UniProtKB/TrEMBL annotation:
It comes from the Bacteria. This is CARDB domain-containing protein.
Length: 251
């Protein structure tokens, strides 16, 4: 009899011990991350080949007061909804990643109590002292930050780019000269000496002709080099401007 009573007490103690965890597991489907809102956001790029860190986007963001800049403070707001009939105590984490590296000192971890069928809004300031591509996401944990209850859905993270002084200078150089940029280094285009032979003029006589009539072409090829050029081969094509893909070779 004593053993049966002892087993009942132990079993009851185990249930009481794991009751908060069981309740959290039951309540987690009732939680929802409504949104992540930023105080400073740049307009979305208006071209298929543009990104938020493309040279054109960087230059446009320099004079736009709505765009986040180096040294600014970004205010992040998220809302956690509790659809359950009882209040829930949770831990809210705002994760900050810059260039795929998590910056834990810039993030937030705080415990909140969300009333039944209520929404709690969380505000967090981020000092934009590090340039790069920022990613903001939210996690909701149990009150002891041991188990994740809900995470930001893939694709719902918020991104913004903070350009450094070097990024701005590289973007200006690329847009001004048309050079390509790889990472932070400017790659200058290949440069060649001007050709010795170049077409000086092309004349078509007469300018208008009917079907079956002959045309005369006068091509003036100029030798700008210092050597004599022999055995020159030229290829001449013509086409109707309304059908540019149907080219015919004349000579």
């Amino acid at each position: 009899m004593f053993r049966i009573l002892l087993l009942k007490l132990i079993f009851s103690g185990i249930i009481v011990l794991f009751l908060p965890t069981l309740l959290s597991a039951h309540q987690s489907p009732d939680l929802k991350i409504i949104a992540i809102v930023l105080s400073k956001t740049c307009p979305l790029p208006d071209g298929p080949d543009m990104t938020i860190d493309s040279p054109d986007s960087i230059i446009k963001s320099v004079n736009n007061p709505d765009c986040p800049k180096h040294g600014d403070t970004q205010l992040v707001q998220t809302a956690i909804a509790n659809h359950a009939k009882i209040q829930i105590k949770v831990g809210v984490e705002i994760k900050v990643r810059v260039d795929n590296q998590e910056l834990k000192k810039k993030g937030l971890r705080k415990v909140y109590t969300i009333q039944a069928r209520d929404t709690t809004r969380v505000l967090h300031d981020i000092d934009l002292g590090d340039p790069g591509l920022y990613q903001i996401s939210v996690r909701v944990w149990d009150a002891k930050f041991k188990r994740i209850l809900i995470n930001t859905t893939a694709g719902d993270e918020r991104y913004f780019f903070v350009a450094s002084h070097q990024d701005v200078e590289v973007a200006k150089t690329q847009l001004a000269s048309g050079v390509r940029v790889s990472g932070k280094n400017v790659i200058s285009p290949l440069r060649f000496d001007p050709p010795d032979l170049r077409w000086e003029s092309v004349q078509v006589l007469p300018k208008h002709a009917l079907r079956g009539e002959k045309l005369k072409l006068r091509l003036n090829l100029m030798n700008a080099g210092g050597d004599i050029v022999r055995d020159i081969l030229a290829k001449v094509q013509y086409y109707n401007v309304k059908q540019p893909m149907r080219k015919s070779v004349i000579a």
